[in-house]
Amino acid sequence: MVVLFVKTINLKMIKSSSIALEFDNVLPELLYDKSLEDVKNTIIFHGNKKEAVSDYFDVNITGKSDIPDDCEIIIDGDLSRVKRIGYCMSSGKIVANGDVDFHVGACMSGGTIIVNGNAESYAGREMTGGVLRIKGNVKEFCGSSYAGDWRGMSGGKIIVEGNAGKQLAEYMVGGEIIVKGNCDILAGVHMAGGLISIDGTINQWVGGQMKKGTIIVNGKLEEMLPTFTLQEIVHNPLICGKYYIGKYELYSGDNGVKGVGSLWLKK
């Protein structure tokens, strides 16, 4: 008989900071086989200073795991100045119960992150795999490239249950982003692959300089770029393996960069 051991690491904030705490080292793949003392002594950065997790969090562990996929980290407290949660994560699960700072899920390649709150800018930037679910809103550059780079999200899935800020999925080359609320300007700008689905209202310039990929607008588009060309009107289209109920207009673009991306608008 095979016994599955699941390890849960509970971190409960006991002291907050106006200077951001960086959680690069707080990952299931780094802590799944560590003792309570090891986890307490895990290094986090506070500005340019190295400090221990236990300086800011009460640590409790239940169960044990033999592989990182069986490890879950639950973080409670005012996390609005805790950034890089799940940075470069490859396995396991992280649950953040509160609003989080910059770069949650950035560069993650596997595992699952759930944010029970809002997320700051650059959530899920340059993701290659895994699932990032944000129960609230997310600010600018979700699923995008980082400043000065040209390659954004290339794999994995981001689900935003609230609204998304400017330049969602900038330079996206793969993966999937679902926004259940509204979206600000320039969603899918410079997009070269992947899928974006937005249920709410979008402001201007969706798909600007888009070369490839698919954008689905199930809500209302305030202003469309003139560099997209209507191809056809389809009832209940099959898009990327899923049926969408209703009448959709299919546009191709961005013609300004000789793009062949697909923009679906529900009518």
Based on the model shown, name its key terms:
267 residues, mainly beta, four-stranded mixed sheet, 2 helices
Helix share bin: under 10%
Topology, number of strands: 19
Largest sheet data: 13 strands, mixed
Poorly predicted ranges? none
Rounded mean pLDDT score:
95
Cα end-to-end separation: 55 Å
Broad shape: elongated
Question: What would you say this structure looks like, in words?
Answer:
The chain has 267 residues and is mostly beta strands. The protein has a domain at 118-266. The chain contains two helices and 19 strands. It has helices at 28-31, 36-40; strands at residues 7-13, 21-22, 43-46, 49-52, 57-62, 71-76, 82-83, 93-97, 112-115, 128-134, 155-160, 176-179, 192-198, 212-217, 229-235, 238-239, 242-243, 247-253, 261-266. The chain has a 13-stranded mixed beta sheet. The protein has a four-stranded mixed beta sheet with strand order 4-3-2-7, with no helix packed on it. Strand 16 and strand 17 (242-243) form a beta hairpin. The chain is elongated, with a radius of gyration of 20 Å. The termini are far apart.
